[in-house]
Task: structure prediction
Amino acid sequence: MQIQVLKSKIHRVKITQSELHYVGSITIDPDLMEAANLIENEKVEILNINNGERLETYVIKGNRGTGQICLNGPAARKAQIGDLIIIISYASVDFEEAKKFKPVIIFPDSENRLIK
Result:
């Protein structure tokens, strides 16, 4: 049996941009992507702390070292620049493996930078 478990989490980053007239997705600084074990085109869930919105989209790479978090397309209507969000991805794993699985969780600073 396979179950869904938390794979990756970027906890409390700020929306830095919003691009309504874009194909769609969330643009993320590659430094954050790598630290959280996310890859381009991976499906993610976005949880908006400010307004309670939840949505699903996919990841595209942004500009490295900028702290960029940009909601694109229709998702841009679900948040304001400056809103705090949580970005989550899940993985399907065998039930027994899930008991030992450890997700990658990062806690960037207030400027969306990795804490060293």
Summary: The beta strands are 2-14, 17-19, 25-28, 43-48, 54-61, 69-72, 84-94, 104-106.
